């Protein structure tokens, strides 16, 4: 792999020359003066002095060559609706949405919180924000009032865009009551709530606050709202993600660096061509949805397929029927979805004409070999794993067949991508582990390449402390993942170093779940750990010490309390965070200094050796957990 090795090497040794070339992949209103300003590490400023606009690059710039080609294809297997928008139509809809937001008082730099199901208006809202320089903050629709309220308070949006409901497995999931409750809980009160009414769930309108989208859009049918030219370093969005502490972090992304990074990844990694169709079966509430449902494919001039529904409804062939119908070239999903499909008849994989499909990309969680083999053989298509994070916005590790075709290795997402100076460090000494197959923490030397997070929203110190000060004596970005690199430069990911767990590709903080469970009046103490699961990768398991054991005298009482605690989590954080089981113990395993031994609990749950227990306060605590399982 000499070509890729040279490409990667140049991206580090001639960083500015390399990224200046990549910057030619997008339109600039004003050229930049400096490629990278890294005078104040770890804060990197990319394409300083340049002006551009994400929405212009995703929509307007394609009007000349492909106005009447598909830009957005929306399919809901939940409601049976399908709708396509050409670039011309998308351009019109985005301007209508932008005009509505402006009428509601949204200005450049204001935040707009988007709490929506997978409907076209969600895409219009995101693009309308970046069009006028407002900063969107999309909150995953599966999060409930408590999670939503904390994000509203952190983002302090001028306006919230939402909808009456989503739908899951044929059941209407009302969003508005959750939003109303969140707005009751939050300290910050947005001026307006813009409501898309899908006619799925009737809702109450709060006078002077709630505005219906349809009539307002009608008023702005002919809206002409030009793109606002923004500094390359202007924030485009924030996206909240979980970490060690209970409080989610607002990952802040820039404008110019992100546009360049996505355009480059579409060329070198995904190999998407303008005029083709990209189908990313994720949700706009996650980073994959931002980068590879909305911005990446559109910047590349591709049509993007936005899908509301499950992979197995009406049957497990639904995705492949869409590949056939819309001639999808590239697909992106998470291993969990493939494991779900694997429980169904293999014949679905060959039922449709998949000749348009070139590659299936998988990311978000470890890809196990049986899953990878099954789907690659079943489809007869290459499967490419890629490893990255909300923080980075685009793949850190994968293979880049657009630069040079490389083999994949099962169990490995691949090697370090251009722009990323990845190292394996000893977490205790900070020493680099240069020999093959040594386990350490994966870190990235600064500056992070274009497209990665600029900072934690309104909290520069937290950005430094959280990510750059975890390894003794070194200022490097920690991925919080353990990993090894083999002799060929392929990395293998061995799990998180922190208390983050990964349930079906969804990143959750065990501390957040613990905080929610602790708010239940019967709970004295709780530990939440991630436990290996065949289908979802991991599930959350909770161990609770109750205030009064007499309150749970028998199995029936225990089951009822377990259900009540799950409901608490559902209503505060959302069903995504609900533990798979809540078990009751009289004492939790802790060190003598009072630290919870989460890793030991996890090991016992997974029937592994819990390791060194010399510091444990009460060994019977772990025995209780063993007995329960
Ligand atoms: P998120 O920020 O939600 O994208 O989660 C990022 C985390 O998911 C990473 O730090 C990893 O722990 C895990 N992850 C993402 N992609 C992969 C992958 N391809 N293989 C293994 N783990 C992954």
**Alpha-beta content class:** alpha/beta
Radius of gyration: 24 Å
Major sheet strand order? 12-11-8-6-7-14-15-25
Tell me the span between the first and last alpha carbons. Answer: 48 Å
Tell me, briefly, the overall form: globular
Number of helices: 19
Strand content: 25-35%
The residue-averaged pLDDT reads: 96
Q: Which segments are poorly predicted (pLDDT under 50) over 5 or more consecutive residues?
A: none
Which molecules are bound in this entry? adenosine monophosphate
Query: How would a crystallographer describe the biggest sheet?
Result: 8 strands, mixed
Helix content: 25-40%
- Tally of DSSP β-strands: 32
Structural overview:
This protein is an alpha/beta fold and 629 residues long. Helix content is 31%, strand content 25%. It has an 8-stranded mixed β-sheet, with helices on both faces. Strands 5-4-17-16-18-19-20 form a 7-stranded mixed β-sheet, sandwiched between helices. A hairpin with a 7-residue loop joins β14 and β15 (249-253). α5 crosses α6. The radius of gyration is 24 Å and the shape is globular. The model has no long low-confidence stretch (mean pLDDT 96). The protein binds adenosine monophosphate. Adenosine monophosphate (AMP) is lined by residues 241, 287, 363-367, 385-387, 389-390, 413, 479, 481, 493, 496, 502, 507.
